Amino acid sequence: MEPLREDIHRALMHVYAAQGRINLALKQYDNCRDALQRELRLQPEPETRHLHDTLRARRTTSPRPASASEPPRAEAGGEPLRPYTHYVKSSGVSIAYQVTGDGPIDLIYVPGWVSNLDLAWASPRLLHVFQRLGSFCRLIRMDKHGTGLSDRNIGLPTMEERMEDMRAVLDAVGSKRTVVFGGSEGGPMCMLFAATYPERTAALVLNGTYARGRWSKDYPWARTAEQVEEDLATIERQWGEPADMGNAAPSLMNDTSEREWFAAYLRNSASPADAISLWRWGTEIDVRDILPVIHVPTLIVQTSGDRWVKREEGRYLATHIEGARYVELTGRDHVIWGENSDRLVDEIEVFVTNALQATPGERLLVSVLSLEISDPHSDSGADLIERHADEIRSQLLLAEGRQIRRSPSRMLAVFQRPTRSIQCAIAIRHRLRQSGLDVRSAVHTGECEERGDDFTGIAIELSSRLLDHARPGEIIASRTVRDLVVGSGLTFEDYGEMEASGMPGVLAFFSVSGAPSGAGG
């Protein structure tokens, strides 16, 4: 820490104050004052002195907590200023989460880009949003895989890994049916969760979020590749300085304390290199193909002048998610604690209260693996699936797959996670190749309906049709699968296109090579 940077001293004072550690906040002021006097023979700036005086007055009027083991509580209302941070393991990664509020509705908030659970409480504006949400729900918050208080420097996650991290948090707090609230880059992950686990999603709330992270001819509102590179250069150049709120929250551009807090928040949420990698990762997201599979009550809130996510992107979501309610607010701020924070919470409260009675959807988002085994040394027509049933069954079990149909040489299986379907195909190919057999596979992710022990739907048909394009030893996957496993370590190469009834345009597919990053991904 640079001892003469008053902005850093003030940010730390805010953090300590939010934790209820007023004495440490005042001690930080003393350190700042002494350093300035010793090195520059100057007194702290008026803003720093005012903060000190405010905190000193607060210390003399605030009651002591009943127990040192309890979280500090605000002067009014009894809500903890900073709750305890808990951890849950998800595929070996520690995920940090906090829980506040005691309303009858469970709501999990997934922020965009990077976050820090503890530093969030140091912003009075963000604190206000959390307290309002906690007035009508049990608010669950998490730092995503690779950010904030969760395990960091562990490589880029896939979106499905982050989705499973969220499920692990919900399991840890005993939330069986939850309102899932995603902002900005956290939105696509919440959409994937709602499509994959409709029975656990009471409602879906999206704010300032998108379906695709980069420009394309059929999605012309996202940032171009050139703009993304400019954004990354700006992040690298300005990291650590008082944050430029020009895009995130123009209404707060002249709020010095907010800019200093936001810079400290970002610095403590990720390293510069990780922040850049995660920003780039967020621009590679494409969940357009899963939007028609979302069948839970959905609220989409979009700010009309948002500089990061255009209003057309919010309208696109509303058009492609069945029955979605779309609310457009006047303003320019992207963050949830900006100029429309109270209006946003008002809309959420009304919507989720009504959504409590919603019935979980019966249609599911699954990844379908079609697989065919052949013996290049024999044309006997033997039942190869049955002969190697134990090997196939063991790999399905490891990947949490479920066989639904089979013939002597072909098999269909379904998975909740696309990476695991490909991982299973790779493992089966490897095991059976040792027996001199050829295996070709195809994977597609889409909507199916469960009927007893069977599944029906267009995803089954498309996976089977894709298999016809694969040569022995090949694994091919649809564009939908490729877009959902960004960051998995798999390599996808253009392979071809086919007409797909029930889907607009043609379905592009790719050959798959490599191995997922992390067993069980």
UniProtKB/TrEMBL annotation:
This is Putative hydrolase or acyltransferase of alpha/beta superfamily. SUPFAM superfamilies: alpha/beta-Hydrolases, Nucleotide cyclase, TPR-like. Residues 2-56 form the Bacterial transcriptional activator domain. Residues 40-56 have a biased composition (Basic and acidic residues). Residues 62-75 have a biased composition (Low complexity). Residues 40-83 are annotated as: Disordered. One of its GO terms (molecular function) is acyltransferase activity. Keywords: Acyltransferase, Hydrolase, Transferase. Residues 107-335 form the AB hydrolase-1 domain.
